[in-house]
Amino acid sequence: MANATNETTFLVDEQTGGGGGGGLEQQTKIGEEEATKKDHHQNELQMGKGTTFNSSANDAKDEMTKFKVYTKTGDDGTSSLYNLERRKKSDLTFEALGDCDETNVAVGIARVHARDFFLFNNNNNNNSGATTSADMNCFDEDVLPHLEIIQSRLLDVGSAVATPMTSEKTKDGMKMRCRFDESHVDAIESWIDAYEEELPALTNFLCPGGTKFAAFLHQARAICRRCERKVQPMVESGDVEKSVGMYLNRLSDYLFVAARVANHRVGVEDVSYKKA
């Protein structure tokens, strides 16, 4: 129970950018007390795979510990990592976490835009832009599900970044829970390969644009590149697994190709670079 409590509170702090840590320490104590009182009630949280508990108890909802979004412990300019180590918010780790969060937000905006555009046109039969409701169906089988998966994997990336492998405070159990499997990189590569089979050969530099969906994907790509640059020093120091850096590198490639697909499938040309 205490482990689940630590993980849940850390995710709240990481996503809100609030206190971070102090609340984690406080909720850890609460979790330990709850574990003593309710040893029959087993909750397990999978970091980055949805902030929900899996419980065998029928009244699990009533037994869950409630967490406040604000903790006030970050008012001194520090925050806590998953291993309870406190660092200044200007630390590279939090810079990387912030960029990871921004990447996730950008991916979410792109995905929601595409989904909502389809729903709007489907319900109102109003083709107000270059993309029609019928066209949007061509993203339902791969692009949109892929983006949803990517958002969860980016939470896994955040968990790995927030668990420095070289820190004495990072226990073996924490390292195991936050491992980032290289199979996630393989998955993205397979998606890229499938997309490229349908796309025309790339013969020029591209400027972000075409459809709004493509432009949003390009924006996510640029933010992902920044995130990769922030994470790479941590990979080189041994604090973060190499697979995390590989994933971010491949993700930016995926977002580039997905942006081309977003244009190609609805008959909109990519915006090519034109020399002055």
Choose one word for the global shape: elongated
Q: How many structural domains does the protein architecture include?
A: 2
Taking the sheet with the most strands, its summary is:
2 strands, antiparallel
Number of helices: 10
Family: Belongs to the Cob(I)alamin adenosyltransferase family.
Region (Disordered): 1-58
Biased composition (Basic and acidic residues): 30-43
Pfam families: Cob_adeno_trans
Features:
elongated, 6 strands, 2 domains, Hypothetical Protein Ta1238, Chain: A, mainly alpha, 276 residues, two-stranded antiparallel ribbon, 10 helices, two-stranded antiparallel sheet
What does this structure look like?
This protein is mainly α and 276 residues long. The chain is 59% helix and 5% strand. The chain has two domains: 87 residues, no CATH class; 181 residues, Cobalamin adenosyltransferase-like (Hypothetical Protein Ta1238, Chain: A). A two-stranded antiparallel sheet has the order 1-2. It has a two-stranded antiparallel ribbon with strand order 3-4. Strands 5-6 form a two-stranded antiparallel ribbon. Strand 3 and strand 4 form a beta hairpin. Helix 1 packs antiparallel against helix 2, helix 8 runs parallel beside helix 10 and helix 9 packs antiparallel against helix 10. The N terminus is likely disordered.
